Amino acid sequence: MGMSAGGAGGGWQSRRSRRRGGGAVMSEINVTPMVDVMLVLLIIFMVAAPMLTVGVPLDLPQSQAKAIPQDSEPLVINIDKQGKIFLQQSEIPLDELVPKLQAIGKAGYEERIFVRADKGLDYGSVMRVMGRLSGAGFTRVALVSEVEQGG
Q1: CA 65 and chain centroid, separation
Q2: Where are the transmembrane segments (predicted)?
Q3: Which residues contact 59 (CB under 8 A, 6 or more apart)?
Q4: 40 and 101 assigned to the same domain
Q5: What is the DSSP string of 124-151?
C-alpha cells in the first residue's frame, strides 16, 4: 500500500516537472515588452512635441540674437495679432498689467520680463506695453524672437 501511494505521488511529480520544463525555475526577466512600450511612448512624444505651443500661439519675428540663459521659469507677457495682452497664459487688460506686475514684484520677483509679440502686430501696440513697463520701473525687459534660419 505504501508502494502504490509513493508510486502515485512520484508519477504526479514527474508529470508536473515535465510541464515546467524539467523543474528549473525561470529567473530571467523578459524586458522585450517593456522596451516595446518605451519605444511606442518615445514615438508618440516625438510626434506630439512639435504640436505643443508655449502659452499663447504667436508668429514671432526672427532675429540673430543669442538666447538668454534662464535659471527659473520666466515671467512672460504675450501680445497676439489682435493686440490682446496675456500675462503668462491669462488675458489681462493693459490698465491692469502694471498693478499685477507690481504685486508680483512685491513678492520678491526681480527676474527679467519677457515680451512676446506677434510679428503681424503694429509697432505702436508693442511700444504701448513697453512704455507702461518702463514707466512703472521695470527695467529688465526683453523682447522674444525666433532664431533666424539661414544666412
Answers
A1: 24
A2: 37-58
A3: 81, 118, 119, 120
A4: no
A5: HHHHHHHHHHHHTT---EEEE-EEPP--
Which residues lie across from 146 on neighbouring strands?
Answer: 62
The identity of residue 10, as a single letter, is: G
In whole angstroms, what is the distance from residue 83 CA to residue 143 CA?
16
Render the chain in DSSP notation, one character per residue.
-HHHHHHHHHHHHHHHHHHTTTTPPP-----HHHHHHHHHHHHHHHHHGGG---SS-----EE-PPPPP-SSPPEEEEE-TT--EEETTEE--HHHHHHHHHHHHHTT--SPEEEEE-TTS-HHHHHHHHHHHHHTT---EEEE-EEPP--
- 101-to-78, 112, 121 alpha-carbon distances in Å: 14, 12, 23
pLDDT of 135 over the 90 cut: no
In a domain, 129, yes or no: yes
**pLDDT tens digits, 104-119:** 765 545 667 888 888 8
**pLDDT value of position 64:** 63
pLDDT digits (tens, 9 = 90+) for 5-25: 544 445 555 554 455 556 677
pLDDT value of position 141: 82
